[in-house]
């Protein structure tokens, strides 16, 4: 983004620097503050919340030169955070840069406001051509007129120009260019600016194959900037969709996601992530919400977000019926594909049993013996945290066929044995143990044909590995 470019050019001039992208500006004030200080750097080295600097305090900023960039602020908490940091810092040579799509927010910050102009026709065409026809290629005479028409419809928006250019790269058929122009024409009928931008970006999404669409939606609504790495996402996609490397590369080539290393977290442009979240919530399709988190679980099942005026229009059962959610779209629990279950959410094990299509489950304090042996059989990624009281029949519950990623973190101290039927996890590629109390691992551990990544972190009771461990190929 332009904000990141400006940050990179200026950061060498300041003692402390901090760049906070839009997707990190979420949550209440305390979450925002923790997030910002966790990203603070001192002369290029990250300092907050790690190692010996866990007790680092914001007062260390006092009278130090600070460059702070908050990219895409949109509420009063962001303004309060900015003002508090500048007050603590209290250094005239510091610089605070914020971006927003809401002028009222910028005005309320007391900052000097600069309007970032859209690209003119010449610059727009140069940017589009750099993606659609990388040097030294040139468009054929029959495509020249289509280039100008497409560029005009991109409205000088760099992201739209890049995504459309990447999609049309090496497309020589005039009919494909015409179809793109028609789709962009249709998007012009949308009134709101954000909606119009998403509609134009969706032109590229709509031309993906069905499996690539699923991966894009998974990436945007569940994996993007989460604790999960691209490697772990791909392990799940291998089971669900197949050809995961090829399908991911298609998204990279079309600029729908960033090209990251497999050990890193999935990243994408904030506008594309917003598009993916909207699509995953059924936007414009009368579809159903596929990802439930603390922030978007329907209000009937989240008392902190309850809205009496819409509760009567929501569905929470396996029964079919013409009911709609707060966004005007049907919400059936059995359609949920991804669930990030926190202890403040009022879902229970019976509710999870109804999620017949569930693929990703990140759960805190799940009582497996309450589930009644009916955990969804399609789960490919499972993370269990905190008070989980039973693992011995995890395989018998039907997960063995699909599970590709298993992460066990801080489980109940009474859980000292791992299931002896672990060898039934024939698709398991990634396994993590963090702060677990297992005293040993079953011999069958050596019979996991696909296991590639195994991590132990602070598992102090585990003294040895099984003899068959060397059989892992």
UniProtKB/TrEMBL annotation:
GO terms for biological process: defense response. Keywords: Leucine-rich repeat. Residues 211-276 form the Disease resistance protein Roq1-like winged-helix domain. The keyword Plastid does not apply. InterPro entries: Apaf_helical, Disease_R_plants, LRR_dom_sf, NB-ARC, P-loop_NTPase, WHD_ROQ1-like. GO terms for molecular function: ADP binding. It holds the Pfam family NB-ARC. Residues 58-135 form the NB-ARC domain. This is HNL class nucleotide-binding site protein. It comes from Marchantia polymorpha.
């Amino acid at each position: 983004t332009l904000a990141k470019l400006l940050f990179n050019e200026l950061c060498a001039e300041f003692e402390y620097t901090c760049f906070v992208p839009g997707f990190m500006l979420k949550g209440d004030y305390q979450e925002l503050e923790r997030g910002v200080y966790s990203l603070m750097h001192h002369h290029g080295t990250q300092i907050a919340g790690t190692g010996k600097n866990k007790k680092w305090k914001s007062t260390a900023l006092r009278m130090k030169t600070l460059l702070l960039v908050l990219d895409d602020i949109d509420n009063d908490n962001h303004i309060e955070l900015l003002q508090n940091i500048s007050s603590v810092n209290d250094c005239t040579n510091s610089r605070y840069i914020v971006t927003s799509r809401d002028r009222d927010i910028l005005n309320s910050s007391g900052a000097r406001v600069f309007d970032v102009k859209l690209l003119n026709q010449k610059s727009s065409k140069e940017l589009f051509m750099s993606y659609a026809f990388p040097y030294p290629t040139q468009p054929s005479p029959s495509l020249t007129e289509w280039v100008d028409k497409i560029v005009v419809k991109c409205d000088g928006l760099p992201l739209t120009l890049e995504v459309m250019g990447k999609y049309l790269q090496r497309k020589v058929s005039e009919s494909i260019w015409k179809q793109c122009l028609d789709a962009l024409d249709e998007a012009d009928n949308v009134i709101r600016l954000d909606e119009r931008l998403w509609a134009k970006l969706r032109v590229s999404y709509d031309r993906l194959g069905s499996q690539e669409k699923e991966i894009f939606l998974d990436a945007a609504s569940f994996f993007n900037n989460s604790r999960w790495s691209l490697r772990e996402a791909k392990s799940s996609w291998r089971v669900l969709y197949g050809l995961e490397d090829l399908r991911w590369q298609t998204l990279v080539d079309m600029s729908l996601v960033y090209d990251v290393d497999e050990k890193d977290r999935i990243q994408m442009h904030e506008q594309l992530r917003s598009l993916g979240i909207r699509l995953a919530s059924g936007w414009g399709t009368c579809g159903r919400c596929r990802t439930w988190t603390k922030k978007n679980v329907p209000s009937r099942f989240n008392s902190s977000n309850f809205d009496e005026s819409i509760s009567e229009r929501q569905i929470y059962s396996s029964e079919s019926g013409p009911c709609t959610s707060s966004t005007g779209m049907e919400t059936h629990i059995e359609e949920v594909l991804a669930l990030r279950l926190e202890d403040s959410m009022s879902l229970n094990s019976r509710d999870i049993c109804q999620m017949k299509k569930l693929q990703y489950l990140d759960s805190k304090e799940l009582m497996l013996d309450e589930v009644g042996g009916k955990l969804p059989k399609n789960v490919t990624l499972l993370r269990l945290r905190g008070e989980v009281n039973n693992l011995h029949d995890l395989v018998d519950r039907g997960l063995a066929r699909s599970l590709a990623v298993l992460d066990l973190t801080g489980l109940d101290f009474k859980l000292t044995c791992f299931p002896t039927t672990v060898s039934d996890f024939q698709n398991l590629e990634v396994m993590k143990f963090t702060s677990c109390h297992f005293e040993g691992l079953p011999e069958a551990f050596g019979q996991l044909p696909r296991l590639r990544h195994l991590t132990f972190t602070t598992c102090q009771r585990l003294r040895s590995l099984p003899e068959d461990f060397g059989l892992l190929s």
